[in-house]
Amino acid sequence: MTDTQTRSRTVAGKLTGFTFVIILSALMAVTSLSTDIYLPAMPLMARDLQGDAELTVTGFLIGFCIAQLIWGPISDHFGRRLPLFIGMALFIIGSVGCALSTDMAQIVFWRVFQALGACTGPMLARAMIRDLFSRTRAAQMLSTLMIIMAIAPIAGPLLGGQIIKITSWHAIFWLLAIIGALMLAASAWLPETLAEEKRVKASLSSAFRNYFALLTNTSYMRFTLCLMFYYVAAYAFITGSPFVYITYFGIDPQHFGWLFALNIVGLVAVSMVNRRLVHRYPLEVLLKFAVVVATLAAVVLAVATGMGIGGISLIVVAVFVFFSMNGIIAATSTAAALDAVPKVAGSAAALMGSLQYGSGIISSLLLALLSDGTPWTMGWIIALFTAASAVMALTTRVTKTLS
């Protein structure tokens, strides 16, 4: 057995360990926690900082989107661990900056800075999985990670709501700084999954040319655009739900977290089912089913909000069905996309993540510019982009191998 084979088996063995799975899940959860935890505080932040709190989401996503495109080639060139350590350090600095901000311009700046580091977590977690697993096993692993990482969007709004009840919103960002420090320490436990001989040997400038090749790879881009369009819709809910639930329907900020957590429970349940389904059906079949269900739910949401029928109950049910499908959509589209370009998994994961999370910029800007003071704006944005996601998924070819 060669040294490379021995090393691969050793690293693969670590991947089944509880510690590795927990750390990888936490890294993927950094992004959602960075936004979800302060959702209940957004109306209060808007009053205190005298500005549009949605811009803090926009700023974070802009930084997140751009930074991934830089970190991807770097991770293909130097490996996964070094960019991860630097990223977590930047996340800590950005979180402290947010906590010390006194006006909207300052906190938007530091949210951009915070995102420069936060993006390394989910991007490199996905790249690590692709380094060592086939498409089906990768999809199963991603579903497992989503089940564990779902703790963040469940606990985040609940914790944030309690924090602003007993102290100011600044404490939320101090907590994020502490979490970043813990993640920096925990990252030392992770193995390097990209072997020296598999790293991109060309200069970094030439490595960035991989993005052009990825953008012209039809198979990769179909799956990537499917995920991107779905996340435009998902971020329309994430960004718009504080206004819809708290301001429009008068839900108490401390109770907002429970309504938000309900959707994550659905996501976890579907992710658990998906872990079994990926061994029985091609990824493309599962993806098509999930986006069709999500589209139907999104259409119901748009009709209900547009006609003003059903009240908050119908909105909660429709969003629950729509959001639950993320348990299949994210895992299957990611695994299938990265499987199409295995030699540049770091750059591919970076571009995919950049478009996926950068899509939230579209949502937040549309909500800020086109809001009519009712849930209708959120409803039609979700319906429109979920339908676009379905178009991408329904045009993909089914890969018959299940291994």
TrEMBL record:
PROSITE patterns membership: MFS
Taxonomic path: Bacteria, Pseudomonadati, Pseudomonadota, Gammaproteobacteria, Enterobacterales
Regions that span the bilayer: 12-33, 53-72, 84-102, 108-129, 141-159, 171-191, 228-249, 255-273, 285-309, 315-338, 350-370, 376-395
Any one GO BP annotation for this protein: xenobiotic detoxification by transmembrane export across the plasma membrane
GO terms under cellular component: plasma membrane
Keywords: Cell inner membrane, Cell membrane, Membrane, Transmembrane, Transmembrane helix, Transport
One function term, GO molecular function aspect: xenobiotic transmembrane transporter activity
Short name of one Pfam family: MFS_1
Name of the protein this chain belongs to: Bcr/CflA family efflux transporter
Major facilitator superfamily (MFS) profile domain span: 5-403
NCBIfam families from the UniProt entry: efflux_Bcr_CflA (TIGR00710)
Recorded topology in the membrane: Multi-pass membrane protein
Compartment(s): Cell inner membrane; Cell membrane
Family indicated by similarity: Belongs to the major facilitator superfamily. Bcr/CmlA family.
Matches recorded under CDD domains: MFS_MdfA_MDR_like
InterPro entries according to UniProt: Efflux_drug-R_Bcr/CmlA, MFS, MFS_dom, MFS_trans_sf
Gene source species: Winslowiella iniecta
Record carries keyword Membrane: yes
Domain of life: Bacteria
Primary location class: membrane
